[in-house]
Amino acid sequence: MSRGQLWIWWLVVGVAATAGQYVLPVGSITGSILYDVIGAVSVVAIVLGLRVHRPARPAMWRWFAAGQTSFVLGDVTWVIYENVLDLSPYPSLADVFYLASYPMFVVALLLLVRQRSSRLGDLIDGAIVATALALVFWIFVLRPVAADSGQTLVEHVVTIAYPVADVLLLALLARLFTSGGARTASVHLLVLGTTLMLAADTAFSLIPLYSEASTHPTDPIFLLSYVLWGVAALHPSMAAAPAPGRVPAEVGRGRLLLFGFCSLLAPALLLVPNIGADRVGRWSVAIGAAALIVLVIARMSGFVFEVRRQSAALTRTTMNDALTGLASRRRFEVALADALDGGRPQMLLLGLNGFKNVNDELGRPIGDRVLGLLAGRVRAVAPEPSVVARLGGDEFAVLLADAGDDEAGTIASKLVTSLSAPVAVGGHELYVGVAIGLAGGSGITPVELMRQAESAMYAAKQTGEPVRRWTPALDERAGEFVRLGAEIRTGLDNEQFRVVYQPIVELPSGRVAAVEALVRWEHPTRGLVSPIAFIPVAERNGLIVELGEWILRTACHKLAGWRVTLGERAPDRVSVNVSARQLARPHFAATVAAALSGSGLPASCLAIEVTETAVFEGGQAVIALHELRALGVRIALDDFGTGHSSLGLLQTVPVDILKVDKSFVDNVTEAGRHTVIAEALLQVSSGLGLSAVAEGVETAEQAAALHRLGYRLLQGYHYGRPVAEPDFELTAAITTSGEPVSA
Question: Does position 596 have pLDDT exceeding 90, yes or no?
Answer without folding.
Answer: yes
